C-alpha cells in the first residue's frame, strides 16, 4: 500500500510530519505492508514550508494512478485575511523556494489552485481504489477546487465556516470518515488521522502498536454519517 503525502509551497510542517511518521511506523509494524513518501505536484523538489521557511524534500511526483492513499496538509501562515494588513498584495506570489513571513493562510491555500495539484487531486478522488485524506486546511484546498460539494468533512475550527460556504457538510469533529474521503481537524489531529487510517487499512493491532510506540492515545470518536442521529442534549 502506497501513501503519498503532498507538499506545496507554504505547507504546515506538523500537518505533514505527524501523519507521515504515523504511517511510516505503521509500515514498519506491518512488515512493509504500507510505504509513505513525500510528493509534490511538480515532482521531486525542495518545498518550503510556512513554518519559518523550513524546507522538506519531495522525493517523487504525486501519481493518483499509483497511490492508495493521498494525504493533503493545510498551510501555515498568518491567520486572517490579506485586506486586514494595509499594503499586503495577495496576488504577489513569491519566487519559487522563497518564504515570506507575512503570508496569510487563505492566500497560500488559494495559490494551490494555480498549480497542477487540483487536477491531480480530482484524478485521485475519481479513482475508486484511492482514499484521499486531509489535515487541517487541506480539506479547504479540495473544497476551493470544487471537489467536496455535498461531502462530509472537517477542518481547523477557524475554517469551518469557510468550508461550509463551499457547499461542504462541515462537521465539528476530530476525524470525519466519508468513505474514500477522510478529513482531520486542527493541526495535531494529523496524529489521530494517521492512527485511524492505520486501523482502517491495516487493522487495530497495527494502530495500537504505533500508539504504544508514540506514547500517544488517539483522541475523539471518528465521525461517520451512519447510525442513529443524536437528539439535543
TrEMBL record:
Which SUPFAM superfamilies does this one have?
Class I glutamine amidotransferase-like (SSF52317)
State the organism's lineage: Bacteria, Bacillati, Actinomycetota, Actinomycetes, Kitasatosporales
Q: Which InterPro entries does the record associate with it? A: Class_I_gatase-like, DJ-1/PfpI, INH-QAR
Pfam families documented for this protein: DJ-1_PfpI
* Coiled-coil features, chain-numbered ranges: none
Q: Which domain of life is it from?
A: Bacteria
Name the record gives this protein:
DJ-1/PfpI family protein
- Kindly give the PANTHER family that the UniProt entry links to this protein: ARAC-FAMILY TRANSCRIPTIONAL REGULATOR (PTHR43130), DJ-1_PFPI DOMAIN-CONTAINING PROTEIN (PTHR43130:SF2)
Domain DJ-1/PfpI: from-to ranges: 120-199
Amino acid at each position: 500500500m502506497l501513501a503519498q503525502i503532498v507538499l506545496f509551497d507554504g505547507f504546515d510542517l506538523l500537518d505533514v510530519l505527524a501523519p507521515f511518521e504515523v504511517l511510516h511506523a505503521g509500515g514498519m509494524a506491518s512488515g512493509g505492508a504500507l510505504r509513505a513518501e513525500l510528493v509534490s505536484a511538480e515532482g521531486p523538489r525542495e518545498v518550503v514550508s510556512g513554518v519559518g521557511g523550513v524546507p522538506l524534500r519531495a522525493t517523487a511526483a504525486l501519481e493518483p494512478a499509483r497511490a492508495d492513499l493521498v494525504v493533503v496538509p493545510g498551510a501555515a501562515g498568518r491567520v486572517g485575511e490579506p485586506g486586514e494588513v494595509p499594503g499586503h498584495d495577495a496576488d504577489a506570489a513569491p519566487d519559487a523556494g522563497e518564504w515570506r513571513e507575512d503570508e496569510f493562510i487563505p492566500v497560500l491555500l488559494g495559490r494551490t489552485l494555480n498549480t497542477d495539484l487540483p487536477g491531480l487531486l480530482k484524478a485521485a478522488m475519481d479513482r475508486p481504489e484511492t482514499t484521499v485524506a486531509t489535515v487541517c486546511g487541506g480539506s479547504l484546498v479540495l473544497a476551493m477546487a470544487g471537489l467536496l460539494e455535498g461531502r462530509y468533512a472537517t477542518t481547523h475550527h477557524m475554517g469551518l465556516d469557510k468550508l461550509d460556504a463551499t457547499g461542504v457538510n462541515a462537521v465539528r469533529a476530530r476525524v470525519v470518515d466519508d468513505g474514500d474521503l477522510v478529513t482531520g481537524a486542527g493541526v495535531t489531529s494529523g496524529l489521530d488521522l494517521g492512527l485511524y487510517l492505520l486501523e482502517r487499512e491495516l487493522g487495530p493491532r497495527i494502530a495500537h502498536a504505533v500508539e504504544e510506540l508514540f506514547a500517544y492515545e488517539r483522541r475523539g470518536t471518528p465521525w461517520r454519517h451512519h447510525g442513529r442521529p443524536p437528539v439535543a442534549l
